[in-house]
What does this fold into?
Amino acid sequence: MEKCTFVAIACFVFALGFTIATLAVQEWIIISTPDYSRLGLFRMCTKERITGEYQCKYMDLSIAWAILFILVIGSALSLIVTIVVMGLSLKKPNLQIPCKVLSVLTLFIFCSATLMFPVGFMNPTIGGEPYRLPSNASIGMCFHFFFCGNLLTCCGTLLAHRSLCHMVSSDQSDQQQPV
It folds into this structure.
C-alpha cells in the first residue's frame, strides 16, 4: 500500500504544479474582439492592433473572483500541507487519518473554486452572466490547468483513501486465479 501513498503524493505534487501555473499565467478568459484580450484574476491584457504587443493593466477584482483567488490560494496551501503530512505518514502510520481528512478538505476547496469561477462571468469587462459566457469569449488555459489540478486532487484523494488501490488490486487478483 506504500505504492498507493507514493502515487497519491505524486498526484498532489502535480496538482500543486498546475495550481501554481494557474496563478502565474493569469489567462482565465479570452475575449475575441478586434482588441483581442486576455483576462486574469487581476489584470487584463489587450493586443495592440498596430504593434501586436500586449498592453496590460490591472483591473478591479470582482467579489466572485476575489473569493476564487482566496480559494485557489487555499487549495495550494492545503495541497502543501497534505503532501507534507502524507509524506510523514509513511514513517508515522497514525497520521493516515489526518491525511484522508486533509485530502478531502483540499478536494472540497478545489471544487468550491471550480464552481466560483463561472460566477465571475458577470464582470463588466467580460459582459456575461453567471455561468454563461458571451459568444465572443472563451475559457483560457488557466481554467484548464486548474481543472487538471482538480482532477489530480480527486485521484490523489481516492488513493489516500485506498479505494482506488483496492479496485486495481482486486482486478489483478481476479485475473491471476484460474477459471
